[in-house]
Amino acid sequence: MEILRTAAEITRFAKAAQQAGKVIGLVPTMGALHEGHLTLMRAAKAKCDVVIASVFVNPVQFGPNEDYDAYPRRFEEDCRSLESVGVDAVFHPEPKEMYPEGYGTYINVESDFTRKLCGGQRPGHFRGVATVVTKLMNLSRAQEAFFGQKDAQQVLVIRRFVKDLNLQVNVNMVPIVREESGLARSSRNAYLSEPERAAALVLSRSLRKAENAWKAGETDAESLKKLVREEIQSEPLAEIDYVELYSFDELKEIQEVRGESLLALAVRIGKTRLIDNIIIG
Length: 281
Ligand code: AMP
Known about the structure:
Blueprint (H helix, E strand, L loop, with lengths): L1 E3 L2 H13 L4 E6 L5 H13 L2 E6 L19 H10 L4 E3 L3 H4 L18 H5 L3 H16 L3 E5 L3 H13 L5 E5 L19 H22 L5 H13 L4 E10 L13 E9 L2 E9 L1
Parallel strand pairs: 1-4, 2-3, 2-5, 3-4, 5-6
Antiparallel strand pairs: 7-8, 8-9
Helix pairs in contact: 6-7, 8-9
The protein binds adenosine monophosphate (AMP).
């Protein structure tokens, strides 16, 4: 596996793959890799000739009071994981390589739905994501890019700017990978103490409860959200940031679950903010 650290290095690698007629797949990550990330890598391997992963903790997508400095960084371990699933190259730039002195261009998706869910609570977050993903798509010359349903709103934001800017990249969404306990895998799970980890199971448990109610015939959006809220409130270590149910693909308000709908939540367990979701309907 090649380790690429500069724009010039990834350009050389991507250009050679492109000239050889290869389909290039891109999997952007912030590292501290787990089985969720590796599932994205495998999906990319299955669909593409050459897979480029990126490991970059993108400063631009973190708010001033967020965990940029504390975010786990374990590049050597990440490289071993990436190599074990056959990734061809990893792009691991320094922040100043991506945002050199004088950098001044940002991608702002101004659709209504960017202001909901995490967009409402993390101002500037999706601007940072859209900017870095655009740069990574350009640098990697990827025809296919892979993202997790874990960050479902992020997938919608990315699909929006790819369409709006006529980028020639197909955006693939991969289902959420969970631990056996139901906890969605996340690099931020590393922040949890043992009691917090047990408390964090309330996220997936509450979603399952709503899913079961929906399967049993409950379609009223308020009732489904209430079920989730009540389950989370029964856990003393958990504090709700949001519990929302929107149409999936435009995040429109809904009264009833008819078509595909995204039941999404963000919950603080101690100092750690975790997100999870399911798609029903
Ligand atoms: P991150 O490193 O957290 O920025 O995540 C990089 C990519 O991995 C994003 O597209 C995430 O949605 C995806 N991802 C993270 N956790 C999971 C998971 N548990 N299941 C599926 N995809 C995931």
